[in-house]
Amino acid sequence: MPLTLLVARNPDPDSSLPYLLRIPLGDGLVLRARETWPRTSKVYCHRHDAPWPDDADVVEEVPLTECRRRGAAIDVVADRRREARSQFVLTRARGREMIFWQTAKVAKAARPNIDLPTARAGGLEDLEIVVDTRERYAWKFSHQQATTTKRALDTGDYGAFVDGELVAVVERKSLADLAGSLSSGRLAYRMGELATLGRSALVVEDRYSSIFKLEHVRPSLIADQVGECQVRWPTVPIIWAENRALAQEWTYRFLAGAVQEHRMGEAARRILPAANEAE
Question: In whole angstroms, what is the distance from residue 250 CA to residue 268 CA?
Answer without folding.
Answer: 27
